[in-house]
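Key result, reporting period 2: structure in, sequence out.
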């Protein structure tokens, strides 16, 4: 059974960097071709794909956030780490880590496994 667990700061000040850790169990992020993505849902809004990393280490980003988003991975810990720099209140959301067969504009049914999500609030 694949499981993803998000861990994050909970509260981030404006202009700081939001860093999440997505810990994976039941699968290896370095094997097979899947997209390991992070997705967010701001309050009262829909889901938004932020970016992804693959088993080979290739990265993909939402063009709307590309300038201040990054994602890396540590295969020895089976973790991937998305980051968002220079955050504003608009980045307040529930953030999810996912494993799926799609990315970006793919339909949400292509995202096969989801973590439970972690609330991140941007506030001074």
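The corresponding designed sequence is given below.
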């Amino acid at each position: 059974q694949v499981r993803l667990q998000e861990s994050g700061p909970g509260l981030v000040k404006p202009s700081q960097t939001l860093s999440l850790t997505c810990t994976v169990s039941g699968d290896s992020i370095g094997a097979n071709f899947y997209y390991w993505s992070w997705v967010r849902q701001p309050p009262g809004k829909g889901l938004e794909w932020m970016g992804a990393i693959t088993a080979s280490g290739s990265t993909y980003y939402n063009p709307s956030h590309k300038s201040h988003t990054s994602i890396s991975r540590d295969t020895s810990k089976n973790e991937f780490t998305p980051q968002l720099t220079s955050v504003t209140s608009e980045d307040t959301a529930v953030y999810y880590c996912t494993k799926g067969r799609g990315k970006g504009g793919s339909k949400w049914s292509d995202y096969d496994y989801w973590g439970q999500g972690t609330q991140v609030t941007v506030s001074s």
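The radius of gyration is 13 Å. The chain is about 0% helix and 50% strand. This case is discussed further under Risks and Mitigation.
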